[in-house]
Amino acid sequence: MGVDYYDVLNVERSATEDDLKKAYRRLAMKWHPDKNPNNKIEAEAKFKQISEAYDVLSDPQKRQIYDQDGEEGLKDAPPPPGSTGSQNGFNSRNAEDIFAEFFGSSPFGFGSAGRSMRFSSDGDNMFRNSSGDGSGSVNMAMKKPPPVESKLPCTLEELYSGSTRKMKISRQVLDANGRLVTETEILTIDIKPGWKKGTKITFQDKGNELPNQLPADLVFVIDEKPHATFKRDGNDLIMSHRVTLAEAIGGTTVDLTTLDNRSLSVPVSDIVSPGYELVVSREGMPITKGTTTGRGDLKIRFEVKFPTKLTGEQRARLKRALGG
């Protein structure tokens, strides 16, 4: 069949006229070359293909031929009466003409002609500005609002092991007739192990659409929920542990459950003084830098619980034991 125009517009084969208009509006705004100055060659190709797909599928006669015989059938079909079709019979409207039908005078501020640039006949300079000099100069009048930021609270377990979140959003979009309607969508956020508070995940153009301006970006900002046992310090984890005076002097073992649900026993053989900190290497948060992976440390900070009362005999024994 050659090019799958339904796939180009990301619509089902049963798509209605409104479905096609909505798909074209969204994709044309995304891939218009003047909105992609740093990726103009790819944008030009995609914009042309999107326009061609809409041109075919929005025309009942062309769509019927395409559904039956594919792209080759369209090339072999005679051009409509009075048209200036190509030699193979397929007459694709200029991409900017279709764009202007949807947006009137161009939403990118290209002047009263309703178009910014046009496809050239030789294909060497696919887009020309309205003056026809091929310079591609553009007056970027259409502004993009500031990003819309929203906090995404995450548990330490999620930031340790990673997780996937499904976020349902509602936003205002322009329908095929230019009216504002409410649209709901499910966004998928893949939280990577080791992400920190303040990490930003950006979904381009997923904010509200308003006439005469580009859609804002939607940004989720990672926030960290408090944990009952651990506190994060960069790539390290910190926990507090209380021991008796006997354990501080005679030794003990700290039993804990890690963020990935492992049981960990940490022997303490040193004498624990108030404020003593024991470092357990590589039991902190994941660290990912390029292809290098590692982990921070776990720091256990001790608090010594002193007895409030001692009998005379206990005091004497303690003095003898400590050589006092």
Provide tags for this entry:
single chain; alpha+beta; 15 strands; four-stranded mixed sheet; 324 residues; rod-shaped; three-stranded mixed sheet
Compact overview of the structure:
It is built from eight helices and 15 strands. The protein is α+β, with helices and mostly antiparallel strands. The longest helix is centred in the N-terminal third of the chain and has 18 residues.
Write up what this structure looks like.
With 324 residues, this protein is α+β, with helices and mostly antiparallel strands. The model is unreliable at 84-92 and 109-141 (pLDDT under 50). Helix content is 27%, strand content 28%. A hairpin with a 5-residue loop joins β4 (163-174) and β5 (180-191).
Summarize the helices and strands and which ones pair or pack.
Layout: H1 5-9, H2 17-31, H3 40-57, H4 60-76, H5 95-103, E1 117-118, E2 128-129, E3 148-154, H6 156-161, E4 163-174, E5 180-191, E6 200-203, E7 218-224, E8 231-233, E9 236-244, H7 245-250, E10 252-257, E11 263-268, E12 277-280, E13 286-289, E14 292-295, E15 298-305, H8 312-322
Parallel strand pairs: 3-7, 9-15
Antiparallel strand pairs: 1-2, 4-5, 6-7, 8-9, 10-11, 12-15, 13-14
Helix pairs in contact: 2-3, 3-5
